[in-house]
């Protein structure tokens, strides 16, 4: 799940809060959903968020972590380079079995990295959404940077169990709590 807040003032105090979360900060069907953090100056920020996206959590977490404190334009160029395999995303936390590549040497000492295309595409779409939200608010897009970015795991999808003779049944999970 992804979300993004953006802000613009003078270049010294520009703010792009990018929060990758499962919530949305507007009224949907009569209930208010919140971001995990609020920008210091909401009038100079813009947000965007995705919810329950069909993308790997671990790859998206590493992609988001690589974009922290980047300017908006630099982050968009970086993700486009990742999609073109010109730059790699460094893997820091979820890096078991991840190979090394020379493209990561200047960003991380162990050199482990990958090119998570689907995660990069989803985050790039979110950045573009946040940019358009900033333009609607009248903010200077060139001065924005990512001040906050966060990835939360999405809801579990329904499962199926495969039966004999080509049948498929739903898998039921049941819990019982007693006092």
From TrEMBL:
Superkingdom as given in the UniProt entry: Eukaryota
Key words of the record: Ribonucleoprotein, Ribosomal protein
Any one Gene Ontology BP term: cytoplasmic translation
Pfam families: Ribosomal_L22
Transmembrane intervals: none
InterPro entries assigned: Ribosomal_uL22, Ribosomal_uL22_euk/arc, Ribosomal_uL22_sf
Family: Belongs to the universal ribosomal protein uL22 family.
GO cellular component: cytosolic large ribosomal subunit
Coiled coil regions, renumbered to chain: none
Any one GO molecular-function label of the UniProt entry: structural constituent of ribosome
UniProt-recorded name of the protein: Ribosomal protein L22
Species whose genome carries this gene: Aegilops tauschii subsp. strangulata (Goatgrass)
């Amino acid at each position: 799940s992804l979300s993004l807040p953006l802000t613009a003032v003078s270049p010294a105090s520009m703010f792009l809060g990018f929060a990758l979360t499962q919530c949305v900060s507007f009224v949907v069907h009569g209930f208010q959903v919140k971001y995990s953090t609020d920008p210091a100056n909401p009038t100079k920020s813009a947000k965007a968020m995705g919810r329950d996206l069909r993308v790997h959590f671990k790859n998206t977490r590493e992609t988001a972590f690589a974009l922290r404190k980047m300017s908006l334009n630099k982050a968009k160029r970086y993700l486009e380079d990742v999609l073109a395999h010109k730059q790699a995303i460094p893997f820091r936390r979820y890096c078991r079995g991840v190979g090394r590549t020379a493209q990561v040497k200047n960003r991380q000492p162990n050199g482990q990295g990958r090119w998570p295309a689907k995660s990069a595409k989803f985050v790039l779409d979110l950045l573009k959404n946040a940019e358009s939200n900033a333009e609607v608010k009248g903010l200077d897009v060139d001065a924005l940077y990512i001040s906050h970015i966060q990835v939360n795991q999405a809801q579990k999808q329904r499962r199926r169990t495969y039966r004999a003779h080509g049948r498929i049944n739903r898998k039921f999970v049941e819990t019982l709590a007693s006092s």
